[in-house]
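Sample pair:
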Amino acid sequence: MEFSVRDKRLRLILLAIAALLLIAVAVWPRKDVVEGYAYPIPPQDADNTIEVLNGTNRRGLARDGTRWLRSEGFDVVSFGNARPVDSTLILVRRGSAEIGDRLRAALKTGLIRLEPDSLRRVDATVILGSDYQPAAGFSP
């Protein structure tokens, strides 16, 4: 009889530990959401996908451009590095040159080129050159 009471206590203790672990996992802060680091999500009506590339030696320029364009309502799906360029290039991959005009207005610089490329899965590629000046408050 003592063995069964002891066994019941052990089961209750194990169930309590399991319940506490489940609660801890449910309410523990997620590491993929870091305060002040995440970029704003573009609005649901953003109809163009953009990639932003850093064409300079300045660190963080593509990240800065990404943050700025997202704040302007563009859906930036990736950012990275590119070969060095002097002037900012806006390469329209799909659609009309209208997206290039909107990007140039948001960036306040850029040469627009129509370079269709259906393999990239973006509507435009922005290669930030040395002429791009980060907007106030968006510097890397």
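The beta strands are 49-54, 75-81, 89-92, 111-114, 124-128.
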